[in-house]
Amino acid sequence: MLLLLDLGNTNLSVGVYQDRKPICLFKTHTDKLKTESEYQELLAQFLLYHQLPLNLFQGAIFSSVVPSLTMKISKAVEGLLNKTCLIVSKNIRSGMAIRLDNPAELGADLISGAVGAIDDYQEDCLVVDMGTAVKLYIATAKKEYLGGAIIPGMRISADCLFSKAALLTDVELSLTDKFIGKNSHDSLNVGIVLGWKEMIEGLADKMEKEYGKPLKKILTGGDSELLKDVLSPDFTYNPNVVMDGLYDIYLRNTVVKKE
After folding, report:
1. pTM of the predicted model, to two decimals?
2. Three-class DSSP labels, the chain
3. Would you place residue 258 in the very low, low, confident or very high pLDDT band (cuts 50, 70, 90)?
4. Same fold, 2-87 and 97-244
5. Does domain 2-87 correspond to CATH entry 3.30.420.40?
6. What percent of the chain is modeled with pLDDT above 70?
7. Which residues are catalytic?
């Protein structure tokens, strides 16, 4: 078994995989104030809850876009498992050629997502990852990361609006079946949720046309559940594409024993 971790600015996602299949998954809020020992205890409780003995783990791999927590959490993992925790970076073998002006800029989550998408589908892919930021990026079947777009995320955009507009109060984001809202609650959800739907579909269409070939469109990320049922049918919902990529990157950098 492998322990997989993906740290974003909003959430820490944790998964346990065996033979490239998820056994259990867990998500918690990213907390920069937590100590190494607190993160270690959090992970220990997660594994204890699922009755997963620590001696069954062959290793761990970690992708992070929060530098201030990277070493803290990786050390927590190593202290828990007594094994080295691989950290996704430009120095690790991902099998993905990064075709960017500055490959070092690419986030570990995007590397992992691109690897997972190509290994899952074996097609030219356009991945839409909805997290703190909404990322759209293209990875080819030849295992090349070509680039994409980064947009302020759905929830942080909404939070900014609520903090700046005195008469607009925070609402729970949800789908609405109409494009003309009759009250503030519905109008906000039309603009925020359905507005993001239209933007993602439109931008994905433009990117596909610029690429010049059909793309397998994949929807993933923490906020993707809000849109998975309303995006056009050519989008495939896959919440585990980053975890799949982490598993595959681990295999490219070490050897997993048969269990």
Report:
1. 0.91
2. CEEEEEECCCEEEEEEEECCEEEEEEEEECCCCCCHHHHHHHHHHHHHHCCCCHHHCCEEEEEECCHHHHHHHHHHHHHHHCCCEEECCCCCCCCCEECCCCHHHCCHHHHHHHHHHHHHHCCCEEEEEECCEEEEEEECCCCEEEEEEEEECHHHHHHHHHHHCCCCCCCCCCCCCCCCCCCHHHHHHHHHHHHHHHHHHHHHHHHHHHHCCCCEEEEECCCHHHCCCCCCCCEEECCCHHHHHHHHHHHHHCCCCCC
3. low
4. yes
5. yes
6. 98
7. 109
